[in-house]
């Protein structure tokens, strides 16, 4: 009788602490990164990880931490972007197992997933691209746009907006 009682208690404990997204979709996601031209070095959060084209296994996003990917290639301007996260719909299955499942999914990162799994980045030659966060500013907060011989593209990486200034 004790074995049956222990078995039932163990099963109930497992059912109550089950985290659906962690079990069904895991805590990592496959992301494919390519560039034109190929051969760019891929950096994730400041660590060199591969060269394009590459298929990467990346930890799913935790509640607050975003993953920044930077591509670097000699003769080209660095290109950076943040992997956009979205709610993992599989987490809704936790409605049937209780709040412990939600907590586990949140802590493991499985509560979210990356909304895009393929990135094809066109590299731009160095010298004609500037990033908004790298520009100097006047005391009143205005940005100083450098003079050049040709067109200059200023990119705001956070919003993805690019402005082209022509001479």
> How would you describe the shape?
elongated
Strands, count: 12
The poorly predicted ranges are: 13-17
The termini sit apart by 87 Å
- Spatial order of strands in the largest sheet: 3-2-5-6
What is the number of independent domains?
2
- Percent strand equals 25-35%
Given the structure, what is the number of helices? 3
Largest sheet: 4 strands, antiparallel
* Overall average pLDDT: 75
Q: What is the structural class? A: alpha+beta
Cα-atom Rg, whole angstroms?
A: 23 Å
Q: Name the helicity range.
A: 10-25%
- Secondary-structure element string: HHEEEEEEEHEEEEE
Structure overview:
Strand 2 and strand 3 form a beta hairpin. The protein has three helices and twelve strands; from the N terminus they run H-H-E-E-E-E-E-E-E-H-E-E-E-E-E. The chain has 167 residues and is an alpha+beta fold. The radius of gyration is 23 Å and the shape is elongated. The chain folds into two domains: 2-126, no CATH class; 127-167, no CATH class. The chain is 19% helix and 34% strand. The strands form four sheets. The chain has a four-stranded antiparallel sheet, with no helix packed on it. A three-stranded mixed sheet has the order 4-1-9, with no helix packed on it.
What are the defining features of this structure?
single chain, 167 residues, alpha+beta, four-stranded antiparallel sheet, three-stranded mixed sheet, 3 helices
């Amino acid at each position: 009788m004790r074995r049956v009682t222990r078995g039932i208690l163990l099963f109930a404990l497992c059912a109550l602490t089950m985290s659906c997204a962690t079990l069904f979709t895991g805590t990592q996601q496959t992301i494919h990164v390519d560039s034109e031209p190929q051969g760019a070095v891929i950096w994730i959060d400041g660590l060199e990880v591969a060269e394009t084209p590459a298929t990467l296994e990346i930890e799913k996003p935790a509640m607050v931490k975003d993953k920044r990917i930077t591509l670097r290639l000699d003769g080209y301007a660095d290109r950076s972007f943040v992997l956009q996260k979205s709610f993992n719909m599989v987490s809704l299955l936790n409605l049937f197992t209780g709040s412990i499942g939600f907590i586990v999914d949140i802590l493991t990162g499985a509560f979210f997933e990356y909304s895009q799994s393929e990135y094809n980045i066109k590299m731009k030659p160095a010298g004609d691209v500037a990033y908004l966060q790298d520009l100097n500013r006047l005391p009143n907060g205005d940005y100083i746009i450098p003079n050049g011989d040709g067109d200059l593209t200023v990119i705001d990486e956070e919003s993805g907006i690019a402005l082209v200034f022509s001479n």
